[in-house]
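To: structure desk
From: M.T.
Subject: fold request, one chain
Message: Could you run this one when you get a chance? Sequence is below, nothing fancy, just the single chain.
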Amino acid sequence: MGYLNSKAWKELIEIVADCLSDSTRFAETYKVDKLKAEKAIRSFTVMKDMAALGGKSARQNIVDYYIKLLETYKEIDIDEAIGRAVDFNDINNNSPEIVFELLLANFSFEKIWEEYKPFSEDDSVLEEASLMKIAKKMSQETGFMHKYATKREKLNFICVLLYAVSYGQSCIESLQYKDINEIGILNKNYIYIIYKGAKIHLKFLQFDNSGTIINIQKKATQKSALNYDMQNPMLVTAKNNSNRISVAGYDVTPGDEDFYYNERIFNLNVVSLEDIRDKYKTIDDRIIEFLRFNQKGRGSFIVSGSDMGVGKSTFLLSMIGEYPNSWGIGILDQQNELQIGVKYPDKNVITLVENAKRNLAQCFAYLLKTSRDVLVVSEITLPEEVSELVNSALRLNAGVSATMHSFSPKEVIPNLRNLMMKTPMYHDKSTAEEDIAGCIDLIIHLKRLNTGRIVVDSIHEVYSNTSWREEFVYEEAFKKDRDFMTMQLISLGTKYLSSLMAGKQYKLKTLFKFQEGIGWQRPESPSEQYLNKMSRYAGKEAVKKIKSIFEEV
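Reply: Done. Structure tokens follow.
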């Protein structure tokens, strides 16, 4: 952040330095007595930690104090210092870091990136020269710099940057609140973001030294049970806003200057199935009707996808929103990334966050003892998560759902099976596969197109191949009709041998399949097995309506 070396910025930084620990300055600024000032300063100590862990309102409170401090400061001409720090009349008369902050403060990253594309064919780097061209073009076309005609707007922008330097995440502070998937640091000269699956090097951003990166790493990992240091040189934890933090350094990286930081951003908003259809074109009307039928019938499903940031968690949130408020929902979330209780305050939700004090089996047992109708795992990564979900679905008749990474729908069941084989409960692949097939009803696979649009690439029913067992009819007819019994046994044996030769206890029925330029096709209809299961809660009339969807030409 080279602009910090200017005299104007040094003056402004000096004014706010240590102000959050100086009760005398607080008392003078807000015209209160010393006792109230000391109490307020103590609250700022807590607020700093909250802001560092992603609390946007806590950060704004600190920024507001900075604004008040500068407004009342008399020792230098603040207006003149602000004018020297940032040129609000000509955006291009600023350093690229400040230009980028001005753009981020007024536009989504999507808008900035769309404006950038005509200037470069390289979608892996955002260059300084291109950034300045974008800024000039957007300033001329939108006139957004006119908002900084007021002193208050100027101060707010300046104080956000002062916070970023003093207590925030330096030049990546504002990025954590934007519409991107991840922020990454490889070293002081390499900062990148992930947007719609693409890793974009922000070549004009850099830190003054590696110490700033270490400071960011330590602030962002405050919630971790272990301290990030030479004894624990690699950590994965989360902020209060659910952003997942992964840091590494010291002895586990190749060089002394290599300190890795990754922040996976979970700015998950409540998006309904209608929003996904109308705004993002991810599904169509028939898929909405079918998914609602599945949710009403308490169907179990996996949302899969191979790309990072393809929207698996967002899609899961929209599906959870379709559950009736009268149902009990149990959530097992590794870091409370979904924040279901906040996003659906009217729903009966219990969320348990994994930790070392309670294992997964104990967490699931608690959820089941609290009369949960459906159980959700935010993302399947551990063997125990699969086995407990299967137990819940098969033994207690609970609808279950989760997200997981998978290259295609074909790999979902094998991946789940392999995880189950790592638990002491399963030693036979066929048994594990059979239990999964009996537990999971649907696989909903998401895909990002070349245009960046995310679609439901396919929806598959997991159809159990073990249904042949149920077709063996034990009747009194066996005693009377030997030919009937013989034919039954031959049929049963044939189906059994077929299942052994196939090597699978299930098959995938393709209910919906996306084709570019055409839309969603419906190659196969749901099985009677699935429809009968859904009819228990959805009702027979709903089954008739779903059948009619797949009978349409």
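Reply (cont.): The two ends are 61 Å apart (CA to CA). Let me know if you need anything else for the meeting.
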